Structure formats: C-alpha cells, structure tokens
Amino acid sequence: MVTQRNRCVAILAICAMAVAYADIKVVCGKGSIKITWKISAELVPHASRLFLGNCMASQLTVLPSGEGAAQFNYHYTDCKFKRVTKGKHLIYRNELTFRPHQKSKPATFVYPIECVYKRPVGWVPSFLNPGSGISEGRGGLEFHMALLNDQLTGVAKTNVIPLGSFMPIWAAVEQRSHQPLLLLIEECVAATTQELQPSSQVYPIIGNKGCLLESTKGRSLFLPRYHSSSIVLYLQSFKFGLGEEVYIHCKLVAWDPEVLAESKKACHYIMENERWELLDDPSQSSICSCCSSTCLSRSKRGVELEPHSFTLNSVLGPLIIMDSTHPNAHNASEISVTGADSQEAQSSQIETP
C-alpha cells in the first residue's frame, strides 16, 4: 500500500516537472479565448488535472509522438475570468494550472493568462452611469464626485495612494428633469486644507477653462466617456502634500453638449503628438490650442445668450499620497473619502452664469 502511494507521488512529481516546460499558445478572440497546451507523454494520463480557472480542457488530442494537446475553447463569461478596466483598455485575466492533488492543496504549476482589448465605446459599468433620463423642463440637479478603485467599478476602499500611481476621480451630474447635459471640470487644484483660503498653498491640476495642466507633466488624462453626464479624470499622483492630507477642489460645470468652445471644454495633452486634444471630439481640437496660452471667457453678451449652465464647487478628500521609501509610509491611517454632497448640489452652491 505504501509502495503504491510512493509510486503515485513519484509519478505526479515527474508530471509536475514536465508541465513546467509545457508549450502554451494563447489566441485572444472576440469575446472568447483559444488555448493550446502541448503536454508531455507522461502528463497525458493526468490531463484531467489541467485547468483554465475552474474549467477542464474542452478537448484532448493524443499526438503520434505520444504527447498531448489540451485545447481550452471558452468565452470570457466562463471559467471565472476576471475583467479589469485599466485606462482605455479592458483586460481579461485567468490562470492555467496543473492540480495533481485535491482542490484544497495549491497548484504545482500556474501560468498567467491575459487578453487585452481596447475598451468598446458603448461599454458602461453600471456604477459609472449616473442616469440618463431625458425629459423636458427644469428640476434639481445632483452632482457627485468620488475616488474610484483601480478597476473603475466602484468607490475606492482606501484613501492612501502610492506616489506615481493613478487616482481615478469620477464626477457626474444626475439630470432627472433636464435635457442631456455634458459634465465638465473647469478648474481643479490640490490643497492641504478642506477649505480654500487666500493663504492656501495650491497645486494646479485643471485650469484655463478645462485644460488638464497635469497632463503636460506625466501620464494624466481624461478617460473616454461612458456617458455625457459623467467624466473620469485619470490623475497620476504627485509629490505635492506628500504624506499629508490632500484635498482636491474642483469646479464642476453641467453644460449643453452641443456647444463646445474655448471656455467650455475638456482638453488633455497628448505627449506622443505634442498637441492638446479635445476629449469629446478630437476633430475640434483647435478649441484646445489656447491651453498653451490663455483661454478667454465669452463676452457678457454671449453669457446672457448661453443655454442653461450650472456649476458646483466640489471637494474630494482627504487623500494621502505616500512614497513607499518614506519611513512612515506604512503608518498612514486609512479613512473615508468624501466628495460633493448631493443635497448641497441642489442648494445655493448651484449657480447659473
């Protein structure tokens, strides 16, 4: 009995060594994946212990050489694939494993699988769609601002951010009784105080009527919109206020989506092209050319003729940006991050230019 058990252990050990040198080919398709895992002859009898996530091979072919080819043909809705949003891309992740033992024991071989796609224009995570009902008339507006997690699927669970990583800042306006509105961030600064005072030290992020100034220094940008009434500022963390509580102060503007101008826009700098680009219509990026100088407001007469526009000064924080090399980096306390209160957004802070 003991001899038989030792023999099984020896066979599994040989299989584990053989699988480590396996030939794996991955083809990422549209909504599905095809994997061919070529295995040694020693591993063929144990092919039922090969998994993609929680899925067994969909087909096993024994080759004339005695080796095997395990095929995994599955959709991303199968096998416990994880979908991650990162910048402009959707990423599907999983693992190929060899599990010679029961599920409670770890796999002896793990091979990461990742398929990366450009994020579809119409793909909308439920969290980021703030509501898009269209109706006539005027009514109260609710503004929101929040720090999102890395996957852009919900509010971040920590306010401690490593230096150089990204802070996805989401802002939205609910337009229950309005024609469709375009949400813009006209101004944004970082400060170490929750309230801005004349003596406050500030770090400019967005200025010049919607120009993302920070995009000229690093990789910050506006992400493609999920809906006109929401916007995601993909902000790379900076050294200002390092290790202290930092608050992000922004002026949010709900605007007519049909009217873009130098004074109402969302522009970021594309370093590869060495030019400013308009988020909502790159073909009109000439609107952003003033970002390198001064973008002028409309004349008084023009303001009087503008369609309905509403603004809100919103504060997000506190955030704590930490340098991992800092001696106190692991001692930062995590607390909740709050943005504009929806009740506040319907009160005196809403202004009509």
Automatic annotation (TrEMBL):
GO biological process entries: binding of sperm to zona pellucida; egg coat formation; positive regulation of acrosome reaction
Signal peptide range in chain numbering: 1-22
A Pfam family assignment: Zona_pellucida
All copies of domain ZP, residue ranges: 27-274
Keyword Plastid: no
Keywords associated with the record: Disulfide bond, Signal
Molecular function terms, GO-annotated: acrosin binding
Any one Gene Ontology cellular component term annotated for this protein: extracellular matrix
SMART domains tied to this protein: ZP (SM00241)
Top-level taxon: Eukaryota
Protein's name according to its UniProt entry: Uncharacterized protein LOC115022737
Gene: LOC115022737
